[in-house]
Amino acid sequence: MHPKVVTGRVAIYARYSSELQSEASIEDQARRAREAIKRAGGDPTRATVFADYAVSGASMARPGLESMMQAVEAGSIDVIITEDVSRLSRDMGDAAHIFKRLQFAGVPLVSLADGIDTSAKHAKLNFAVKSMLADMYL
């Protein structure tokens, strides 16, 4: 787990895609992220949750994602935790754009289910593969 999870300003991003899914999905994703923060030795109560309810990951027009990216660019976030890459985007091009924006801002992304920490050596390759798979299953 990235060290900034323990010492930094942590954002949790959660999303579910359709009205057929449960709003509890957001709470479940946030709970798993908080558990990961706690296991790493951080304070999960300090994490800020950004969420999008019943919004497709194929769209970038998501209020929660937009708010989180504005906070990233304002320097208010040190690290982002998400359940998996598909929560950020199910469009490979959009995912690459998000990746570049986070890299430019110096904000690592930790994707729990995918085992990705974008500050790691081969993260770009792993992120690209997971993004491609998410795109294929849209």
**Which topology does CATH recognise?**
Rossmann fold
The total of beta strands comes to: 5
CATH architecture: 3-Layer(aba) Sandwich
**Assembly type of the shown chains?**
single chain
Q: Can you tell me the overall shape?
A: globular
Order of helices and strands: HEHEHEHHEEH
Spatial strand sequence of the major β-sheet? 2-1-3-4-5
Provide a quick synopsis of the model.
It is built from six helices and five strands; from the N terminus they run αβαβαβααββα. The protein is an alpha/beta fold and 138 residues long. The protein has a five-stranded mixed sheet, with helices on both faces.
Write structural notes for this entry:
- This protein has 138 residues and is an alpha/beta fold.
- It is 46% helix and 14% strand.
- It contains six helices and five strands.
- The protein has a five-stranded mixed sheet with strand order 2-1-3-4-5, sandwiched between helices.
- The longest helix has 16 residues, at 24-39.
- The protein is globular.
- The termini are far apart.
- 38% of the residues are buried.
